[in-house]
Design a protein that fits this description.
The chain has 190 residues and is α+β, with helices and mostly antiparallel strands. The protein has a domain of 124 residues: 60s Ribosomal Protein L30, Chain: A, CATH 3.30.1330. Helices cover 32% and strands 17% of the residues. It is built from four helices and five strands. A hairpin with a 2-residue loop joins β1 and β2. The longest helix is centred in the middle third of the chain and has 24 residues. The N and C termini lie far apart (104 Å).
Length: 190
Amino acid sequence: MRMTRTAVCLPALAALLLAGCGPTVFKGDTGLKIVGDLPPAPPPPPKPAPEPPKRAKIVDNKIIIDEKIQFEYDKAIILPVSHGILDEVVKVMNENPHVKKVRIEGHASDEGRGAAANEYNKRLSDRRAAAVMEYLASKGIDKAKLESVGYGVEKPIAGNDTEEGREKNRRVEFNILEQDKKEGPAGGGK
């Protein structure tokens, strides 16, 4: 019987492979030694970032916001930069179901231009308050819980003789008209 070269090589190759795959046993002092100090333990994980301060919160009978609602000049169009603060007003209202009715009030500064200018500012502040009300409704707040009014120059909170005072008078306020007894700690107010 004649053996082929493949038949002779296959068993030799299998024996060679099996011999190299066996366990390796260290004898004597052939293991690795650690020289020097151990590395320091890893630092603890960082603490979670603190929650950013609330920009909208209930205090007594108001929803207080810590920044102004911005509008296009001489228009009742809310600038996108104010969407974030208005979204926080929505969140406060959703977290406080005891709040039943909110009046959104628009206010203007008195530039000293006379009765016609004051009447124009009153209409503009009314349209701006209505725009804020529509924004809140578009985010899921029931329109039955909202009303809007523009007061123009009628209710200043600062003098109109300086630009700083006039700037303070240009504002939107959220006054709570109706609320049930507060049921829990939501809102962070009094």
